[in-house]
């Protein structure tokens, strides 16, 4: 793959080096000891405040169950967390015994949450990083995805990468060239997209960071694309995470960015050694996760749905007819008013992947009258989680 380097930007990122923790054997869902895989060039740099808060340890706890318990303990004074259930699907050929769990989530950049986004119904205390980091980690650890696609990440190097690396995840991060976070005083550096994967389940073959273009003009939006090989099946999987341009009036730009990403994905799967030249596109399944900032009636959504890559949206599986997206994936109140809409998607190759289960969306009552974010939930976007399996090759 051709690598397009993303500029790292500026910001007051503080890095601290410590030994990489080993995992204990007490986890009921064991993960391998942490090591720097081919997709992980950075060292382990821990958020020192986070580590000091762990009981008597200079390292974050390596056992994911123990870490989840400590997150819950740190959040013991918060309102009840939002409980969600999986809807299990039957597509005729039975559920897999070892599905691939995927999480898509815009976690809300810390600088934007405290600075520019103006969530007028959310107390500033609920937006503090000292609280939100535990809520974010709790959400991830509750569902334990094999593949984790995140947007608006501005605490990658000091929190998410080192903590998740210690739990067996390898990752890649691409910041936006001109992140709005850098305009906020006391920021932690630029926000961007991050893609994590469980090294016990996948081997990384290649990874590239892409700066999306519109009509061949580079834009401020990015994507990370990683080629993985499943260790248990030997099957290949190409995963992309992206975050398209926000705000009304930019529909044309989102459409152009989406077209650019689809074109680059098509080139990558056709040219990669895992897929010989001229092979059918479906030979390498695709997962494309992202905050598209686009409702299902927008052109960029239609372009993905009609792409020759054969993509479908996993969360349509929650609807009775299997054709309708959820009513919302984000719900917030800003000075301009209340926004309740569907902007986030998990696209998958429907000819080679099957959706086994989908995490349902919380009700309006669960979200609460002040909407998101809140003391119960750290982002204005809800996480999307689904279990997928490789279909048998014909």
From TrEMBL:
Coiled coil: none annotated. It is found in: Cytoplasm. Its cofactor is Mg(2+). Pfam families: Exo_endo_phos. InterPro entries: CCR4/nocturin_mRNA_transcr, Deadenylase_nocturnin, Endo/exonu/phosph_ase_sf, Endo/exonuclease/phosphatase. Keywords: Biological rhythms, Cytoplasm, Hydrolase, Magnesium, Metal-binding. Residues 103-381 form the Endonuclease/exonuclease/phosphatase domain. SUPFAM superfamilies: DNase I-like. GO terms for biological process: circadian rhythm; nucleobase-containing compound metabolic process. One of its GO terms (molecular function) is poly(A)-specific ribonuclease activity. The keyword Kinase does not apply. One of its GO terms (cellular component) is cytoplasm. PANTHER family: CARBON CATABOLITE REPRESSOR PROTEIN 4, NOCTURNIN. Belongs to the CCR4/nocturin family. This is Nocturnin. It comes from Xyrichtys novacula (Pearly razorfish). The lineage of its organism: Eukaryota, Metazoa, Chordata, Craniata, Vertebrata.
């Amino acid at each position: 793959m051709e690598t397009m380097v993303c500029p790292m930007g500026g910001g007051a990122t503080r890095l601290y080096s410590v030994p990489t923790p080993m995992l204990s054997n007490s986890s009921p869902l064991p993960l391998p000891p942490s090591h720097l895989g081919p997709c992980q060039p950075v060292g382990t740099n821990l958020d020192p405040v986070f580590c000091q808060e762990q009981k008597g340890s200079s390292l974050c706890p390596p056992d994911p169950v123990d870490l989840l318990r400590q997150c819950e303990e740190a959040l013991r004074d918060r309102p009840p967390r939002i409980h969600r259930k999986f809807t299990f699907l039957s597509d005729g050929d039975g559920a897999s015994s070892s599905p691939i769990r995927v999480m898509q989530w815009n976690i809300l950049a810390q600088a934007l949450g405290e600075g520019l986004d103006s969530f007028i119904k959310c107390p500033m205390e609920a937006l503090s990083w000292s609280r939100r980091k535990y809520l974010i980690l709790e959400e991830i650890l509750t569902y334990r995805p094999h593949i984790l696609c995140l947007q608006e990440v501005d605490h990658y190097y000091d929190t998410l990468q080192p903590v998740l690396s210690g739990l067996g995840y390898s990752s890649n991060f691409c910041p936006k060239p001109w992140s709005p976070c850098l305009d906020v005083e006391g920021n932690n550096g630029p926000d961007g997209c991050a893609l994590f994967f469980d090294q016990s389940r996948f081997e990384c073959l290649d990874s590239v960071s892409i700066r999306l273009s519109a009509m061949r003009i580079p834009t401020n939006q990015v994507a990370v694309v990683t080629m993985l090989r499943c260790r248990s099946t030997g099957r290949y999987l190409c995963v992309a995470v992206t975050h398209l341009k926000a705000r009304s009036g930019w529909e044309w730009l989102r459409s152009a960015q989406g077209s650019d990403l689809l074109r680059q994905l098509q080139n990558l799967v056709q040219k990669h050694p895992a897929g010989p030249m001229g092979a059918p596109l479906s030979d390498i399944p695709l997962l494309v996760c992202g905050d598209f900032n686009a409702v299902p009636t927008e052109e960029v959504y239609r372009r993905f749905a009609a792409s020759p890559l054969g993509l479908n949206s996993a969360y349509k599986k929650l609807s009775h007819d299997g054709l309708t997206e959820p009513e919302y994936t984000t719900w917030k109140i800003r000075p301009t008013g209340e926004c309740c809409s569907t902007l986030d998607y998990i696209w998958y190759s429907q000819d080679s992947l099957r959706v086994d289960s989908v995490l349902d969306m919380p009700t309006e009552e669960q979200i609460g009258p002040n909407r998101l974010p809140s003391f119960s939930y750290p982002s204005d976007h809800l996480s999307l989680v689904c279990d997928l399996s490789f279909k048998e090759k014909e």
